[in-house]
Amino acid sequence: MATTDADTVKEERARQLAEAAESLFAAGVMSHSGYANLSARLDGERLLLTPGFVRGLRPEQLAVVGFDGQVLEGELQSVSAEIIAMHSTIYKARPHVGAVIHTHSPSATAFAVANRPLPCRTEPMLRFGQAEDVPVVPWGPRGSDVAVRGMAEVLEQRPTTSSVLLANHGLLVFGPDSAATAHLVVAIEESAEAEIAAAAIGGGVDFPPGAQEAVRASIARVSS
Questions:
Q1: Where in this chain does the record put each Class II aldolase/adducin N-terminal domain (predicted)?
Q2: How many angstroms from the chain centroid is the CA of residue 141?
């Protein structure tokens, strides 16, 4: 059977998603259990989703799922089936988003447990797409309508955020592709670690006015 353009796109995005999962473990930002779920947009109605585990993930193990929750290809453990709506809500609300990653990264999760937004006070957050505090989505049972509605409301209220903290749960990050999203997960976890450490010596300090513009100018100067 001939390979179609759609097959090529699926294979490439599956490979990228598996590489992103591996990069999170290599960066040391995962919880003790290694729990996470990752997805990549295929089109306006389908996504690739991790099957219920991410450690040692291979591209062919990813499932193809409809935004409506129907599993179209592959298999999902119930632990992943519960979170399809969480991922599809992001894709529906953010047409430019190409990948979503949910982790229980320890330091970021500390802010989620405290129900406290994570301030944007480190340059990697500026560089990798979170130039504002990471907001908190009110708690709701995992995968429930309450949780999904709360997420949709925060996304509407904060149209430029690229991540949210799920109260009493963990971190949810979204970006243009799997690699960029994984980079932001690492930046947020490192920033959360720094915030907690800074609290012991007087607390973090905000960037000066114009910091985001200065960072953008620096990136543009090197890229040109």
A1: 15-196
A2: 19
